[in-house]
Amino acid sequence: MGSDFAKFDRPQMLHTGFRALQKYRDTTGSYPLPGDSAAAESVVTLAKEIDADLDSNSQKIIGQLASGSSGCLSPMCALLGGIVGQEVSERIY
What we know:
Layout: H1 10-28, H2 37-50, H3 56-67, H4 74-92
Helix pairs in contact: 1-2, 1-3, 2-3
């Protein structure tokens, strides 16, 4: 997989987003729930405190990152749970 040089600043912006998420988790004790726009806005505010030069597109992406930070991918969980359960049962019997 190649790099997308049109989005050269994306890794730094995502790093800022993850730092803001960690700061939010440290203060509240959990990540924002999916669809909680107030919590996502709090994460964006924390990200702006970390990096004052965030543009509106970066703020939107960090808000989306915050909204999905505690979500669960049910199909992926079901697939991995089925594989792990099968492997465990083969080893027991």
